[in-house]
From TrEMBL:
<dbReference type="InterPro" id="IPR025615">
    <property type="entry name" value="TILa_dom"/>
</dbReference>
<dbReference type="Pfam" id="PF12714">
    <property type="entry name" value="TILa"/>
</dbReference>
<dbReference type="InterPro" id="IPR036084">
    <property type="entry name" value="Ser_inhib-like_sf"/>
</dbReference>
<keyword id="KW-1015">Disulfide bond</keyword>
<feature type="compositionally biased region" description="Polar residues">
    <location>
        <begin position="881"/>
        <end position="890"/>
    </location>
</feature>
<dbReference type="GO" id="GO:0031012">
    <property type="term" value="C:extracellular matrix"/>
</dbReference>
<dbReference type="InterPro" id="IPR000742">
    <property type="entry name" value="EGF"/>
</dbReference>
<feature type="domain" description="VWFD">
    <location>
        <begin position="181"/>
        <end position="364"/>
    </location>
</feature>
<dbReference type="InterPro" id="IPR014853">
    <property type="entry name" value="VWF/SSPO/ZAN-like_Cys-rich_dom"/>
</dbReference>
<keyword id="KW-0325">Glycoprotein</keyword>
<feature type="domain" description="VWFD">
    <location>
        <begin position="589"/>
        <end position="766"/>
    </location>
</feature>
<dbReference type="Pfam" id="PF00094">
    <property type="entry name" value="VWD"/>
</dbReference>
<feature type="signal peptide">
    <location>
        <begin position="1"/>
        <end position="23"/>
    </location>
</feature>
<dbReference type="GO" id="GO:0005615">
    <property type="term" value="C:extracellular space"/>
</dbReference>
<keyword id="KW-0732">Signal</keyword>
<protein>
    <submittedName>
        <fullName>IgGFc-binding protein</fullName>
    </submittedName>
</protein>
<dbReference type="InterPro" id="IPR001846">
    <property type="entry name" value="VWF_type-D"/>
</dbReference>
Length: 897
């Protein structure tokens, strides 16, 4: 195949015409239909501005006169120029059209005896076989009237409408090319396989896009993974978040927006991995990855991607991109490479599911490609907007003979229906179609200015970049000021380019003196950027243009070499704080209490609990090492009203050294019995209290409490107290599985099951509320919610009696005949002295609860303190009274003190 050149053509011409008539309106009828070219001056020059490209600059001058009138002529689209290459210098023999060019100023007033100057420019592609010794040795231009004008253009004797110049021998250093195929992803997302089959799916997980199924020693093994995400759960569509290449045990990731990482470490572009033959560079807004075995991946900021493979991978690959066997009807296949044996439309969803990676949830509903109502305004708008793809006289009409636009039209309409009034997926569909067309025609098809028709797709370039529809995809950058042409897989691309003289540093245009450093391995660093070796044994910092400073490094004690947030460095172990290189000091832990409320313990266990009482959040437990101070942090939660299911934090109290410090949701701050809210900041040597939006209290021994005055509190525990505390926030011993402990240090492990017998729809709601209140009062760790629905199993952990051992509450719900009775049993795991007076009133009842209690006693799991069973209440009134008695007793008991 022939190599490709990029050329730029600049044209200028001048017109001498007849006289105006005053007040003539724009687009007035021409008084003469004859425009004679009386003089032609033209020349073509060729300037090779780089080793790897050529620029053709053409200047042509035409002089015109009108016959029979001196009136002004105001017309649109007066002329056009057709460029072509020819076998002979008189344009005879074989020809090949290149493009047609029109003036940028499409409407002009032609005045007598004056010069009107028009300019037009166009980037075109030349093949290497144009020039001396080749079939096409001459480049020609023909000047003619525009097909939309009624003015006839003729040439005087001796003048010619065609000008030809000999093409020089232009050689470009380009690698040999071979036939390849491209798989596309665009929109939300839509896909087109290597063999040209298009389909849509909205899965929001990771998928294998391409991998090797038929191994061959002549092809490199790799895998490309496509990661989709849903911006919000309610959105019906998904987007590509990241594309990853797995090759030779290295992971190269191109992420939405501008992030690029290698093995999780963010890198500045351009990036080069000489050992693996992988390069990644930026051509705004595209990130382009190329390999030395022919794979190329392009990913832009609109979630569009193109994966290109050379022909030697035919019948070797599989995945979402198909099997590359030149048959678009058999794209559905299994991971072992065998086809599913049915038509694509019947198996495409199974095909997508086959290539999911570690998905656990149910596969999403198959998308409906007609989401707009027939005849609706949105559908009409979508069809009209997307019609640019199928318009036989539109800017993309030349593409129709190479690529059928129907797939792109359907997906475009679908996207606009889904996301109206957002129009950016119109641009996505057209951009992908244009790229598909360019590749299919080997970049020989002329594309019209489609963005002037699809005005929502006006390109937006960042900073000082400008848009170029025929930009060089391998632009000059700080690591390669001449441009990485040798790795360019395509000759041109719609893109944003830097101003002349500036270079790309990552994604920014900078002056050459602002460029950073290039390492020996080809890695590029911006000024101020640091490189850390894979084992953290060496680091290099770019301190200025070409000024690379390297040295050895090692991680501190209690630190590990790892990657976090895309940066490789030495990081302190959990529970330690420092820079990871010089020091890692033990740090404290935080327990957070928030919401209605939820708990996140010191050891990062999480649970919810809606008790409306006073509870021990954290306190010192057991024998403390010498020098530590005993403390106790209590919290109090209340429901906003009697109907409210949830509770909210209303008080935080700290007791230490016989001192009492209290924070209230009313704004009151009490210390030693006096209000200090208006005396902040406050510091008496034992405690420091200040306001930072939240109220912060810091003790002399390092304990810190933060409270926002509503429903959010944090307790910071110093390292010396790890393993010496207990309460709702856990024991801070580094093990989250043992946070739910009794004051004696044993775990709560009793699980209580409800009998799955009935639906509680007929149960008195007041009784439910009282039961729930009672249970929540006595359950320290987890909430109990009783709702009129089937009950299966509920875990209830034993609550703490602050000054005595633990008790256990078991609730058994059973169905007796057609009426529902709730039986409440209070079983003491150990004797709680403060409740002895009511032991008889709250002893286990008969029936299932009695049997359950006896079973627990027989197995030794509980000790029973009771005087015998009480009769089962026979009606809801008695039950109401019984539960009320229980609730009243609990409300007045010392459990709340």
């Amino acid at each position: 195949m022939n190599c490709l050149l990029l050329a730029s053509v600049l044209l200028a011409f001048s017109l001498a015409i007849t006289a105006p008539s005053v007040g003539q309106e724009l687009y007035a009828r021409a008084v003469s239909n004859r425009l004679e070219v009386t003089e032609v001056k033209g020349f073509i020059t060729f300037n090779q501005i780089e080793k790897t490209s050529s620029s053709v600059v053409m200047e042509l001058s035409y002089k015109f006169t009108f016959g029979g009138s001196t009136d002004v002529v105001q017309k649109e689209n007066l002329w056009q120029m057709q460029f072509f290459v020819s076998q002979n210098d008189d344009s005879t023999g074989d020809k090949r059209n290149l493009f047609t060019i029109y003036p940028e100023n499409q409407s002009s007033t032609l005045k007598p005896n004056t010069q009107e100057h028009f300019e037009a420019s166009k980037s075109i592609d030349f093949l290497e076989d144009y020039g001396p010794g080749q079939l096409f040795e001459f480049m020609c231009v023909t000047f003619s009237k525009h097909p939309q004008t009624d003015v006839n253009i003729t040439f005087s004797d001796g003048e010619s409408e065609t000008l030809c110049e000999s093409l020089p021998s232009l050689k470009v250093e380009m690698p040999p090319t071979e036939e390849n195929r491209t798989c596309y992803f665009w929109g939300d997302p839509h896909q087109k396989t290597f063999d040209g089959y298009g389909y849509t799916h909205q899965g929001d997980y990771e998928y294998i896009g391409v991998t090797i199924c038929n191994r061959d020693e002549n092809v490199n093994e790799f895998e490309v993974v496509v990661d989709n995400f849903r911006r919000t759960p309610s959105k019906p569509v998904t987007y590509i978040r990241e594309i990853r290449l797995y090759y030779n045990d290295v992971v190269y990731a191109l992420t939405h927006l501008d992030d690029v990482s290698v093995d999780g470490v963010k890198v500045t572009l351009p990036y080069s991995d000489a050992e693996n033959g992988v390069t990644i560079h930026y051509a705004a807004p595209h990130k382009i990855l190329t390999t030395d075995f022919g794979l190329a991946i392009r990913f832009d900021n609109m979630h569009n991607s193109a994966i290109t493979l050379p022909v030697r991978y035919r019948n070797k690959v599989c995945g979402l991109c198909g099997n590359f066997d030149d048959d678009r009807t058999n794209e559905c296949h299994y991971r072992n490479g065998t086809t599913m044996g049915v038509h694509n439309e019947e198996c495409k969803h199974d095909h997508v599911k086959e290539w999911e990676i570690n998905r656990d949830d149910e596969y999403p509903i198959k998308p409906d490609l007609r989401t707009c109502d027939e005849g609706s305004h949105i559908l009409n708008m979508a069809v009209a907007s997307c019609g640019i793809l199928t318009d036989t006289e539109g800017p993309l009409a030349n593409c129709h003979e190479y690529v059928d636009p129907e797939t792109y039209f359907i997906t475009c309409v679908y996207d606009l229906c889904q996301l109206h009034p957002k129009m950016y997926f119109l641009c996505s569909s057209v951009e992908t179609y244009v790229d598909d067309c360019q590749r299919a025609s080997n970049w020989e098809t002329e594309i019209g200015d489609w963005r002037s028709v699809a005005t929502a797709c006006v390109p937006r370039c960042t900073e000082n970049m400008t848009f170029n529809p025929y930009g060089l995809p391998c632009p000059p950058n700080c690591a390669d000021p001449d441009g990485v042409h040798t790795s360019c897989a395509i000759p041109h691309l719609e893109m944003c380019v830097c101003p002349e003289g500036k270079l790309l540093d990552g994604t920014k245009c900078v002056d050459p003196e602002e460029c950073g450093c290039k390492m020996e391995n080809g890695r590029y660093l911006s000024i101020g950027e640091e490189f850390v070796a894979g084992d953290c044994s060496e680091h290099c910092t770019c301190e200025g243009r070409g000024n690379l400073q390297c040295g050895s490094m090692e991680c501190a004690e209690n630190a590990q070499c790892s990657v976090k947030a895309g940066v490789r460095n030495c990081y302190c172990d959990d529970g330690y704080m420092g820079n990871g290189r010089e020091e890692c000091n033990k740090t404290g832990k935080v327990c957070r209490i928030y919401g209605d409320p939820h708990f996140h313990t010191f050891d990062e266990d999480s649970y919810s609990f809606q008790g409306d009482c006073t509870y021990v959040a954290s306190r010192t437990c057991g024998d403390l090492p010498r020098g530590l101070t005993h403390f106790r942090v209590l919290i109090h939660s209340d429901a906003l009203n009697s109907e409210e299911r949830f509770t909210y934090l209303t008080q935080v109290r700290l007791h230490f050294k016989h001192k009492a410090f209290k924070l209230y949701n009313t704004g009151e701050i009490s210390y030693e019995g006096r209000d200090i809210a208006n005396a902040l900041p406050f510091d008496d040597g034992s405690i420091s209290v200040y306001r930072t939006g939240d109220i912060v209290a810091v003790t002399s021994f390092g304990l810190k409490i933060t409270y926002n005055g509503e429903n959010d509190a944090e307790i910071f525990l110093p390292p010396d107290y790890f393993g010496h505390v207990c309460g709702l926030c856990g024991n801070a011993d580094g093990n989250s599985t043992n946070d739910k402990q009794k004051p004696n240090g044993t775990l709560h492990d009793v699980r209580i099951s409800y009998f799955p017998t009935t639906r509680l729809k007929n149960l008195n709601s007041q009784i439910l509320g009282m039961l729930e209140t009672a249970l929540n009062m006595m359950s320290l760790w987890r909430p109990v919610r009783l709702e009129p629905k089937n009950m299966r199993e509920l875990s209830i952990y034993a609550p703490v009696c602050e000054r005595s051992p633990v008790h256990l509450l078991i609730v058994t719900i059973s169905r007796i005949r057609d009426s529902l009775l709730t039986l409440v049993s209070l079983i003491f795991v150990e004797h709680c002295p403060l409740l002895t007076s009511s032991a008889q009133a709250l002893s286990p009842t008969s029936g299932h609860a009695q049997k359950r209690a006896e079973a627990l006693i027989q197995t030794g799991r509980v000790k029973l303190n009771t005087v015998g069973p009480r009769p089962v209440p026979k009606d809801t009134k008695t039950l109401d009274s019984h539960v009320t008695s229980l609730s009243q007793h609990l409300e007045t008991s010392h459990l709340q003190k």
